[in-house]
Amino acid sequence: MQKLCFLTAAAIGIAGFAKLVDLAEFDNQLSSWSLLSNAPTRFSVVLGLPIIEITLCAAYVCFPARRTAVALCMLVLFVVFSLAFIIEAHDGAPPGCACFGLLFRRMEFQNDAVWVVGKNALLAVPPVLVLWTGRRRALMENVPRGNAPDIRGFTLVETLAVIAVIAVIVAILLPVLSHVRRSGRVSATLNNLRQHAGIFLLYTNDYAEQFPYFTRPEPGLSTPLVDPSGRVWNTYYFGAFHNWALALSDGYYNSTGSREGFVSPFRAESPGVSWDYLYPCVFLADPAYWRSITRMVPPIQFRSTRLHDVVFPGAKVLISDECYWESTRYTSSPFAAGGCVDGHAEQVAGYRMAQQYGPGDGDGNPLSSPYGHHGGNTNAFMHLVGGVSERDFIDK
Q1: DSSP string over 306-317
Q2: Which residues of the chain have pLDDT under 70?
C-alpha cells in the first residue's frame, strides 16, 4: 500500500514541478476561472499550489514516520481541487469576448470535468487506504503513541541540503527547458497556421476562389455572428480580422481540426492580447485601398478578394499568430508567424517583414472609422502596403 501511495506522491511532485517550470502557462490555464478572477488570489494559487505539491512529495519521501499525516494532506488536496473544479465547471461564467479559442477552451473545460474528478478520485485511493490501514493497525495493536517504534527520517540539515541541490538542478535546467518549450510552441503554432490556411483555401475552392468574406460593408456593428454557445456578437466590417472563426465554424470547423488549434501556444506570453489568430484586413478591400495615393472614401473600395488577386502566394500571409508577434515585438529580435496562401506556414524575423500601411483600416476620418478596428499600424501582416497584390516577406 505504501508503494501505491508513493506513486501518488510522485505524480503530485511531477505535476508541481511541471507547473513551476512553466508558471506563465499555468497562470494562463487559470485565467478563465471565475473563482480566481481576483488577481492576488490567482497569483497565490499559481505560486502556492506547485510549492505545496512538491513539498508533499518531498515530505512523503524524506519522512517515513510522517507518511500517514502526509497521506491525509494529499487527500485534502485532491478533495479541495476536485470541489473547486466542479464548482467552476458548473457555475463559472463564460468568457466575456467572442474569442473563439477561449470559448472552445471553456466548453472543453466543462466536458473534461468528469474525467478530472475521476482521475483525482483514483489518485486519492492509495492515501485513503494508507489512512484506513494505519488506523486499523493502531486499533488492533493498541500501542501507546509514546511506545511506537522510532522510524527516523532525514535530519533538518539533510533535508535542506536536498532542497538546495534540487534548486541548483532546476536553475541549470530552466534555460534549457525554456528553449525547448519555445521551440515546441513555434512548431505547434506553425502547425495550427497550416491547418487554418488549409481551411481558408478549402473555402476559396467552395466560393469561386473568393477568400472568406462575410461582413457587410456598412458603418457600425452591421453584421451579427453567433458563437458556439448561441450568443450573438455584432461585428464591424473590418471586425472579420478576429471574428472569422465565428463565421466559418459551422461549415468548416465542426468536425475539422482541434479546438485547441484556435488558442495560440504563445497565449501565456501575451496576456494583454485579445485574439490569437488573425485574418489580415487586406483581404477585405481592393489593393488600391492600401496605398495613400489611390485610397478612396469608404466603402467604395471595400470588396472581397480572390486567389487571382494574389501575385505572390508563397509570400502572402493569409492568417497570423498575434500572440507570437506580441511576445517578441518589443525585443531585440522580433518574430512573427503566418500561414500563407500557398498553404505553407513559417516564422519570419522582423527585418524581413514588408512595410505596413500606416493609417491601417482608417485614418481618423469620421467617414472611415465606423467600418473598422485599426486606426493605425500595430499588427503584423494586417495592412500591407499594396494589399493582397504585394508580398509580406521582402526577400521572397
Answers
A1: BGGG-S-GGG-E
A2: 1-3, 25, 28, 31-32, 37-39, 90-113, 134-180, 254-260, 270-274, 363-369, 373-378, 396
Q: pLDDT for 214-228, tens place per residue?
A: 999 998 888 998 877
| DSSP 8-state class, residue 93 | P
Cβ 57 vs Cβ 73: under 8 Å: no
Angle at the Cα of 317 (from 312 to 322), degrees rounded to 5?
Answer: 165
For 166, the 3-state DSSP assignment is: helix
Q: What is the pTM of this model?
A: 0.62
Among the listed residues 1, 17, 117, 116, the one whose alpha carbon sits nearest the alpha carbon of residue 57: 17
How many CA atoms within 13 Å lie on the side-chain side of 192?
A: 27
Phi-psi region of 376 (alpha: psi -120 to 50; beta: other; left: phi over 0): beta
DSSP class of 357? P
Q: Are 246 and 311 in contact (CB under 8 A)?
A: no
Q: What grid cell was written down for 225?
A: 455572428
How long a stretch of residues is the chain?
396
For residue 211, give Cα distances in angstroms to 51, 60, 229, 247, 283: 50, 59, 26, 13, 7
- Looking at residue 311, its pLDDT comes to 94
Residue 332 class from Cβ within 10 Å (0-12 exposed, 13-18 middle, 19+ buried)? exposed
Q: How far apart are CA 365 and CA 384, in angstroms?
A: 20
- Give the integer Cα–Cα distance in Å for 259 and 275: 15
